[in-house]
Design goal:
Blueprint (H helix, E strand, L loop, with lengths): L2 E3 L2 E3 L1 E4 L4 E4 L3 E4 L2 E4 L7 E2 L2 E3 L9 E3 L6 E4 L2 E4 L8
Antiparallel strand pairs: 1-2, 3-4, 3-7, 5-6, 8-9, 10-11
């Protein structure tokens, strides 16, 4: 089951209240919109396709649309360290 977040379907998203990636089973649709079952928050980042420095593939759907990706001395790194696909 997937939910609609900002006009697109999502299987996971980043909850700003929890400061964690939440999977579809941790989300619920209410009359007010999408809500986190863990904290009750409704402030989420929209996911987006990016080249993830940890996945080393052409593009993955990132729960934060790459907001945690930074350039460092050795190339690119992601501060989120989600590893949710592993």
């Amino acid at each position: 089951m997937s939910h609609i977040l900002h006009g697109e379907e999502t299987e996971y998203c980043y909850c700003h209240n929890c400061k964690r990636i939440r999977a579809d089973h941790e989300l619920e649709m209410t009359a007010e919109g999408l809500r986190c079952k863990v904290c009750g928050g409704s402030d989420f980042d929209q996911s987006g396709w990016v080249v993830c420095p940890h996945q080393k593939v052409s593009a993955v759907k990132c729960p934060r649309a790459g907001k945690g990706i930074i350039r460092d001395l050795h190339g690119y790194d992601c501060l989120d360290r989600c590893f949710f696909r592993v």
